[in-house]
Amino acid sequence: MENKNIATERRSVPQLRFPEFDGEWKEQRLEKVFAEFKSGQNITAKNISDDDIYPVYGGNGLRGYTNSYTHEGFYLLIGRQGALCGNINRANGKTFISEHAIACKSNENSDTEWLAQRLDYLNLNRLSESSAQPGLSVNKLLRLKLYIPTLQEQKKIADFLTTVDSKLQALKKKKSLLEAYKKGVMQKIFSQELRFKQDASTSLSTGDGSEFADWEVRKLGEFFIERNVKAPKNDQYPLMAFVANKGVTPKGERYNREFLVNDGDSKKYKQTKFGDFIYSSNNLLTGSIGLNRYGSASISPVYSIFQIGELCNYQFISSYLTRRSFLNKMIRYRQGVVYGQWRIHETEFLKIKEKIPCIEEQTKIANFLTAIDNKITQAESQITHTEQYKKGLLQKMFV
After folding, report:
1. How far apart are the first and last CA of the chain?
2. Most exposed among 66, 227, 262, 376, judged by the fewest C-beta atoms under 10 Å?
């Protein structure tokens, strides 16, 4: 590809271009590049199942399957209603396209995949009308103007971007498979269906005499010490958020509410250190429970904070106590009469009994699960890198 100097090129020429192409892109309305551009047909939920033949596509993608089809071939789909209107999806083959999507098929001078990539980058949601139930007008979209290259250049760009998308989908599938594997193996480990051997750091055994001792029923109070230090925020303990499924993290705009209340520097927060176990009673099932993997911080006093003692591996106990079966057990300890006011008192939390392995087996389990987490993190990093790479390409390859 060739990089063009934006300062010396007209607006109708992209900054990044394949070397075999030149000349300016032409401005056209969408009505001039699509052979078909209209909403799909109505279908009720009772006519959609998981067992029929033909996929049903709505504004947000695949909804299920039905026994008939409305379209055949490759179509670009634009979501036309709801908060996610403007979403771009694709349907190929014999499919049923519902009234919540606009079915679009290019004419002989345009490439449907190139148009899908271009409109996705354009963010059509910004053109939605009505704040109560956002929607896109078909007629308004048809009047939208784009700079469009020749069909040959469209196909070249579309093929290249499809290759990037394929890599991105492969990475997302890899991450999903790793997460599913971790979930499955955790269920087997914590139910003791799979056990670690004493003489191996990564091998699993179903029992051959070389296992660790049986897991013992222990109170959490044997491993946890409540940390209830309250003090104003300071440089050593900066004010942070505790975000569901993320843990302690810097306050972003979404979680920062300090501007609503002016407490000066006197308001007291709870102090937490790296490796602490933290939870919010009212939000257990949404993921507001887990380890402090950040470090010293001040967080809201609504959270319960515990230091994990030396007889327990903090990574093991975090995985063990954030599983769904334990969260359901914790909920039984809730106190209060109004759901929004329910809480689990710290003393009740420390009384909960669980079967816990010895520290040596805890460590082996923790190391095994951490190795999987590292692979998931690596996949996440690759996904982020690929998404940023594609975003940079789109900025330069479109006019």
Report:
1. 16
2. 262
Classify residue 48 by its DSSP letter: -
**Would residue 116 be called left, alpha or beta, if left means φ above 0 and alpha means ψ between -120 and 50 degrees?**
alpha
Amino acid at 123: N
Domains (range + CATH), the chain: 25-148 (3.90.220.20), 151-200+358-399 (1.10.287.1120), 216-356 (3.90.220.20)
Supply the DSSP symbol for 197. B
Contact 269/241 with Cβ under 8 angstroms?
no
pLDDT in tens, 311-343: 899 999 999 999 888 888 887 776 554 444 567
Q: pLDDT tens, 31-42? A: 999 999 999 999
Residue 68 main-chain phi, psi, to 5 deg: -145, 165
The answer to whether 65 touches 43, Cβ cutoff 8 Å, is no
Q: Which residue has the tokens 């309250």?
A: 230
Q: Are strands 277-279 and 204-205 parallel, antiparallel or unpaired?
A: unpaired
Q: CA 258, CA 263: separation in Å to the nearest integer?
A: 8
Cα(73)–Cα(141) distance, rounded to whole angstroms? Answer: 22
H/E stretch holding 318 = helix 314-321
- With a CB cutoff of 8 Å and minimum separation 6, the contacts of 125 are 84, 85, 86, 87, 134
Residues 6+ apart with CB under 8 A from 154: 110, 111, 114, 115, 148
Cα torsion at 273, 275, 277, 278 (round to 10°)?
A: 50
* DSSP structural state of residue 239: B
Amino acid, res. 316: F
d(CA 272, CA 228): 9
> For 175-219, how does the pLDDT look when each residue is reduced to its tens digit (9 = 90+)?
999 999 999 999 999 999 998 888 644 455 544 557 789 999 999
H/E stretch holding 395 reads helix 359-397
Confidence band (pLDDT; 50, 70, 90) for 346? confident
What tokens does 143 get?
Answer: 């009047």
